[in-house]
Amino acid sequence: MDTRARIGADTRVLADVGGTNARFAWQAGPGAELQDVLTLPCAEHDSLESALRAWLQRTGRPLPQRVGVGIANPVHGDHIQMTNHHWSFSIEGMRCSLGVHELVVINDFTALALAIPLLLPHERRVVSMGPQQGAPGKAIGVLGAGTGLGMGGLLPLTVNGQLHWAPIEGEGGHISLAPETEQEIWVLKALQRRFNGRVSAERVLSGPGLIHLLDALEQVTGDHARLPERTAAAISQHGMTGDCKVSEQVLQMFCGLLGSAAGDLALLLGARGGIYIGGGIVPRLGPWFDHSDFRRRFEDKGRLSHLVREVPVFLIDAEVSPALRGVGQALR
Fold it and tell me: Is 18 annotated as a binding residue?
């Protein structure tokens, strides 16, 4: 008897694919607990399909007929070419190669947005001194910095008296960087020279972006960082401890610019339901982030500052990537 015949029709494999890591999980059906969650480095595999097959081999799971993928990339049409990694594939071609009935591919921050209503109380915490609760049934914004910068959101829809959520698919991480202080303007000019013109928010609000900020700030100030290695992790660590003053400046600038971008997102969506921060960088900053310039810059919106002050900001602090649950929602 074919092994797959013993698998429930709603059983699925879920994947959350970023520029650095790909996370996989097994789910028996809609809303079921995630099992066999593993993270595989993208650099160790030639393709998404090979990474998926490696996960199947490690877990001993058979391949079900349904596969869902959230990926850090625009999803328009059949062809996927990752922005921050070399993987590329045809959705239909991969479906046929795997031999599955259904392969759904969505943007990773669309997946994260779909997971927001599923978060448990202990999987989020309020950032800084803002409001503690969002307005029920109002729009929600999501952003996060990791290998890149992702943005998304949820819009409320009432159908037959029941509240539903419609995810917003976009690439907000590639909006233009909007500096506010004189030093940030000089940093932007340095980055414009480096990138031959336009500088997106992702160029600084990401792991590689921390290094870009460090390089630009050294040019602007003439000071040089004293770090064991020029990595995002080293900048974050020594910036928080104050061991490296240039790294501390970089981290403060990063948090300020992220606050401005998050406030812009709140205004754009009318996100009275709250702004949620995911990604790999900010959760690692812990309490230091709460005392950074983030919230002040978030609220600094001129004539409409009073609106943004009413918007809570939550840090997503879940042990297992919530985007996996969001991908599961897309397969319902």
Answer: yes
